[in-house]
Amino acid sequence: ENDSQQENLSGRETQDVQLELCDKELWNQFSSVGTEMIVTKTGRRMFPGYRIKVSGLNPDEKYCLMMDIVNVDENRYKFLHGEWAVAGRGEAHHPQRFFLHPDSPAKGSKWMNESISFHKVKLTNSVEQNIDGKVVLNSMHRYQPRVHIVRTDDVYNIRTLPMYTFAFPQTVFITVTAYQNDEVTKLKINNNPFAKGFRDEGARSKKTKLE
Amino acid sequence: ENDSQQENLSGRETQDVQLELCDKELWNQFSSVGTEMIVTKTGRRMFPGYRIKVSGLNPDEKYCLMMDIVNVDENRYKFLHGEWAVAGRGEAHHPQRFFLHPDSPAKGSKWMNESISFHKVKLTNSVEQNIDGKVVLNSMHRYQPRVHIVRTDDVYNIRTLPMYTFAFPQTVFITVTAYQNDEVTKLKINNNPFAKGFRDEGARSKKTKLE
DNA sequence: GACCTTCTCACCTACGTGTTAAGC
DNA sequence: TCGCTTAACACGTAGGTGAGAAGG
C-alpha cells in the first residue's frame, strides 16, 4: 500500500524511499466530507496535523525534509446547496514557499526513527505574513500539501538539488475563513483537543452552566 | 568590557570572537546573593535564562553553538547559618553532555543578528533523564555553564573539531532541590513571569481572596 | 440581500512557577 | 531530629479552538 507520488529519484538509497501518512483514518474521515482548513491573517494551524513516517533512506546519509502546499487546480470554489462547486477562475497563487523541518539536516537514521510532524505550519491569507513558518494561500481555493526529501546537509542550497516529492490524495483541502460544511465543523470539534470546549456532553451545556 | 574566557582560537575569523551575556544585571543580582538553580526528576529550566550575543564571526561561514554545564570544584555544599559552606567531597559527575542550539548549523551572520537563547535547557538530578535537552547534575554542587562555538556545518562530528569556549563568572550556581536562601527565592519570584502568582501585591494576598 | 472576512471572546491544552506536606 | 528529596497543587504564561457579532 503506497498512495504517494514520487517524482524524482537518484541513486544511493538502498531501497525505495517511502512515505506513510500518520492519522490516515482521520484524514480519510475529513476527506470523505470535504476537508476545509481555516486561513487567518495571523495564521492558523492545520487540523489534522500533517505528520508522516519515512523509510528507505540511507541511515548514514544526511537529509533535509520540507513541506509545501500547492494549488490543485486553477479554480475558485464556493459551497452551494451543501456541496463544493467551481465558482470561476482562481486568483493568482503566491510564490511557493518551503517550510523546512526544523530538525534539518539530520541523518536518515534519525528521520526514520520517529514520526515527523509539520504541525507548526500556519496557513495565512495575508501576504504581509509571508514569514518563517507561515504559508500564504488564497481562500476558497483547493490545495495539496507535499513533502520533499533532499539528500544534503546544506540547508542553504536546497532548491538546486534533486529531491523526492510525495503527496497524499486524502490531504487535499479547501481553504476557508469560516467553515462552510457543518460536518467538517463536527469532525474538528470532536477530534481537535483545543476545541474540546465546544463538544456537546449531554447535560453539561453552556446554558446549564449559566444557571 | 569582556569578562569571558576564551580557550581555543583558530584563524579565519576577521576579528576576535566575543560573547556578551544578556540580562547581565539580573545575573549579577543573583550572583551577589549566591545563585541557586532547582533540579528535579523531570527537569527544571534555569532562571535567569541563559542568553548571549555573539560578534566577530565570519558572516558567511557556518557555525554550531552549544552549551554545557561543568562542575566548578570537587566539593559538596550545604547551606548553614545563612551561608554556603563546603560539606565534604563531591559526588562523581555525570558524563558531560552538550546541548546543541537547535538553530545549528547556521551562518555567522544569522548568529550575530539576534540574541541566542538556551532557555529551553532543563536541569535534572535523575540519570534516567539523560535525554535530549536535559543536563544531569548533582544537587548541592557548584556549576558553571559554558558556551562553545565550532566553525562547521557538520553536526555529527562536532567533538573532533577546534572550538571557542566562553564562560561568565556571574552565571555560576549551586544546584538545589528546594531553595535554601530566602533572598534567592525573592529574586526568582520578583523576576520570573511564571512565578508572578507568588508576588506580594499589597492587599491582594491569598487570604484576601478566600474571603 | 448574500457572501465572505475580520475581530473579540470564552474555553480549552500545555507547561513553567514556588509552596506545602509527606517521604526517606 | 535533621537534612534533603519528591509529588501534588494553585496560579501564572502562552497560545490553539470555534462561536458570534460586526464589517465590507
Automatic annotation (TrEMBL), chains A, B:
<feature type="domain" description="T-box">
    <location>
        <begin position="21"/>
        <end position="200"/>
    </location>
</feature>
<feature type="DNA-binding region" description="T-box">
    <location>
        <begin position="26"/>
        <end position="200"/>
    </location>
</feature>
<protein>
    <submittedName>
        <fullName>Tbx6 related protein</fullName>
    </submittedName>
</protein>
